Amino acid sequence: MNAQWMRQLGAVVSLEWKKSFFNRRSLWIYLLAALPMVIFVGHALETKFTRERLARQRTPQVTMERARTLREGMTPEQVEAILGQAPSRQTRGSRRNRIQSWNYSDGERQINVRFRNGELERWSSNESCNVSEDLHIFAGVYQFFFLRLMVFFGCVFVFLNLFRGEMLDKSLHYYFLAPIRREVVVAGKFIAGLIATTVIFGTSVALQLGALYWHFDGPKLEQYLSQGGGWQHSLAYVAITGLACLGYGSVFLTGGMLLKNPLIPAAVILVWESINGVLPAMLRKLSVIYYLKSLCPVEIPIDKGVPPFLAMLVMNVEPVAPWIAVLGLVVLSGVMVTLAARRSRTLEIQYGAE
Amino acid sequence: MSDSRIVFENVSKFYGEVLGVNRVSLSIPPGITSLVGPNGSGKTTLMNLMTGLLRPTRGSVSVCGVPTSDPENLFKLMGYCTQFDSYPKGFTGYDFVHSFLRLAGYEAREAERLAWAAIERVGMQDAAKRKVAGYSKGMRQRIKLAQAVSHDPRVLILDEPLNGLDPLVRAETIALFRDFATEGRHLLISSHVLHEVDIISDQVILMSSGYVVAEGQIKAVREEIEDHPMQILIRCDRPQRLASRLFEHDHVVEVKVHADGQGLLVKTRSADQFYLMMNRIATGDFRIDTVAPVDDDVNSVYGYLIGAEEATR
């Protein structure tokens, strides 16, 4: 690539990135990106409030060590002797089947003790902040909500419109009347779209993680970040988001140029990506989500109760090594952008036909 | 030779089953060439084929030896002022020209210099920093023209460039076109306003329903139309007497005394013989003030070739 092409590429990118970020229609992308943040901010607030409530309800003599000494069949008096008087008590059921529920707090978790007909039936504790559980929730939301829907539709919107939107606005000729290779226009538009989507969705992931970490208490967060691979996980999620924009972006860029009505192929691709887990091994590799799932740092546990078909959709069958996944996505994107560039050479300006 | 010409080789363009242009073969030399025809005759299709915005269904087009499938080299030597009236959102007039030059690969400072030079050339300095969306039709035409000429192209393609311009700017723009032509450039101008074409063009291409019906210098085209005798106005003294002299010649088919009684309107089958005859008469006992053809303008020629109704459409 010579210096002239680089200058031209820079000129296309500088014209295009503003459109992708500040176009009035881009509001949808910001909303899509903000949606999962709402979930995690809500979760963080809820946890904060719960923790504050538990701190207020803390019974001085309640500890997990003491709770672990509780045994089935104990009487309420025996339990009271160990944990003290419960600040919250509920009774329900009939005279023959009387259930009592006592709630204690050690300041961090809620300890629930349940009696049936005056005998301890079971006890349980709920942590206000469970790092491992929260990370699994994040992984689930990220893989099945954020990647498959938010990033997917964000890329549909941005990349399908790179050429098609300008065809509809009747402004594509501005590029096609300049002494510039059409391949350079394609590359410039793609890079601008990639920058915009990666920044928007990458920022969204960073903020989601920020919201998630916000309610972790200090020592737990520190331990997760320094010893539990927290920093690597965080960086991995942002990088995977960028790769998702690269993969989906290239597919939709090409779709928008090859097809008159690209919404139908977008729907087909959405279905194809969704059923990736049940496809034969060869076909599975022809999808973006296959490589992205292989890169995700936290695996999602699948409950035994999940139906087999749903489990197939959720689980990552035969994941590939990270370097193969990255290479696979880069190759797929390269092929797609090359196809788009080839198509651009024969693209005609026929605004009336759109 | 073809390196200085715009060449169409048996070009056809169909939009599905709809004809755009059909079997067009042209070799256009430098100078001002007007593409004439009513709306829907195929003028814009021909221009879009020439600029690579459309690809021919059949045949090939090259501009000064560069195929239209090579936009990088094509637009180094060509500027196109289109009829498309949409602009990148939020652009000022200056942005419109400057960004185009940046896309062309010019360094920022050089692009700035060229942009201002082009804007000045079309007299848009005062409005250059205003948003194009707020421009009048005439201002938009001029800023498009500035963009088309900003990189100093050898070939200028102008689709209805005088639309929306007020008379003063119109005259200035026509003078600008003449300047370009005298520098040895191609100017291809489409218009459906026939008297406009007469003023500015060296040669014309007449189009109708997707076909080129005639091309060349307008006088030469007129002379080739044998079905319609040429009309010539003679301003002279004693018009009745002159009329009787003219009727002695076989090529003269009709003579009318002009409504003001100061001359004759003559129809002849042979312009050459007529002018030879007039040389002899002028040296005799008549005072001849003017001899001028009255139907060798584009309007008349187009009317003869296509039909008066379509010519005025």
List the helices and strands and how they pair.
The complex is a heterodimer of chains A (354) and B (313).
Chain A: H1 3-22, H2 27-56, H3 64-67, H4 76-83, E1 88-93, E2 98-105, E3 109-116, E4 119-127, H5 131-160, H6 164-169, H7 173-176, H8 182-214, H9 218-226, H10 230-258, H11 263-274, H12 281-284, H13 288-295, H14 308-314, H15 322-346
Antiparallel strand pairs in A: 1-2, 2-3, 3-4
Helix pairs in contact in A: 1-8, 2-5, 2-8, 5-8, 5-10, 8-10, 8-15, 10-13, 10-15, 13-15
Chain B: E1 6-15, E2 18-28, E3 31-36, H1 43-50, E4 58-63, E5 66-67, H2 71-74, E6 78-81, H3 93-103, H4 108-121, H5 137-149, E7 155-159, H6 167-182, E8 186-191, H7 194-200, E9 203-208, E10 211-216, H8 218-223, E11 230-236, H9 239-246, E12 252-257, E13 263-268, H10 271-282, E14 288-293, H11 298-306, H12 308-311
Parallel strand pairs in B: 3-8, 3-9, 6-7, 7-8
Antiparallel strand pairs in B: 1-2, 1-4, 4-5, 9-10, 11-13, 11-14, 12-13
Multimeric status of the protein: heterodimer
**Average pLDDT of chain B, to the nearest integer?**
86
How many structural domains can be distinguished in the coordinates of chain B? 2
Question: Which structural class matches the secondary elements of chain B?
Answer: alpha/beta
User: Count of helical segments of chain A?
Assistant: 15
